[in-house]
Specification:
By secondary structure, the chain is an alpha+beta fold. It has 2 helices and 8 strands.
Length: 268
């Protein structure tokens, strides 16, 4: 004769089923959230890698006149603000270049010599003409000093350097980048530093020359503030500057050029 389930057995089975269902839902949510975090992280990594490659291309297309004379108007400038792991500790670099890297193919300055300044700016920053709407890597663009002087010969009192924060509005290169650090090798004798970070230096003030190599480090924001492996993930590139030798004839090293022009600015 078949015996029916007792009330206790039914309640126990219901309890077990509820526990298994809850565990299944929690496991599914954890896997789904982990996949979403990883996808967001990889998306930021890809965009950051694109921005870094643009910066590498921009540095490799650095411009220096072939007239045999030295000029502070074409020297590389590094403003060291810290370790570069957050916006207010990020470095600022400035140099002259040609080509569409950073500025884009449709830019009016792409086919002429122009000067660029690259930095990380935080959302809400109001140092410039228009407030910064999103944290990320930004660039400011300025026409070549020779062209600028020819077109604006009567405007002698205007500061056309990047120190004039109202003149050149920052343009977003990539969002999600919360920090930028730059280090340099000042000369070819330190070539072994390619695999030794201790050889790179944080200082390269206004100069009429360019460094031998530049090390770039970007820090990425956590996806939606959620931790993934570490607070920020660095991407690093080392760039050999092709026109280093060309810039060296009669060059003044950064330690010898106190008070040289260059539009330097310190982060506020």
């Amino acid at each position: 004769m078949r015996r029916a389930f007792t009330m206790i057995e039914i309640l126990l089975a219901t309890l077990i089923l509820g526990v298994l269902t809850t565990l299944s839902v929690l496991t599914f949510n954890a896997v789904s959230n982990g996949w979403q975090v990883a996808a967001d992280y990889m998306d930021k990594m890809q965009r950051t890698d694109f921005a870094l490659n643009q910066l590498v291309s921009g540095l490799r297309s650095m411009y220096y006149p072939h007239d045999g004379e030295q000029s502070y108007n074409y020297g590389f400038v590094l403003t060291d603000n810290g370790d570069g792991d957050k916006p207010d500790a990020s470095d600022i670099i400035e140099w002259s270049k040609m080509g569409s890297a950073i500025v884009g193919n449709n830019s009016q300055v792409a086919d002429t010599v122009h000067r660029v300044q690259v930095m990380v700016l935080e959302e809400g920053n109001s140092d410039y003409r228009d407030p910064i709407e999103v944290t990320g890597l930004y660039a400011r663009l300025s026409p070549d000093t020779a062209l600028r002087s020819a077109e604006n010969a009567s405007d002698q009192d205007i500061d056309y350097t990047f120190a004039n924060q109202d003149l050149y509005q920052p343009l977003l290169i990539a969002d999600g980048i919360v920090g930028f650090d730059c280090k340099v090798l000042k000369n070819a004798e330190q070539v072994e530093a390619e695999t030794d970070d201790r050889k790179f230096e944080d200082e390269f003030a206004a100069s009429n020359a360019v460094p031998y190599k530049v090390q770039l480090t970007f820090h990425i924001a956590d996806p939606e503030g959620r931790s993934y492996r570490s607070n920020t993930a660095p991407l690093v590139r080392i760039v050999r500057i092709p026109i280093f030798e060309q810039s060296q004839d009669g060059a003044v090293t950064p330690s010898e050029n106190q008070g040289a022009p260059g539009g330097k600015e310190k982060r506020k």
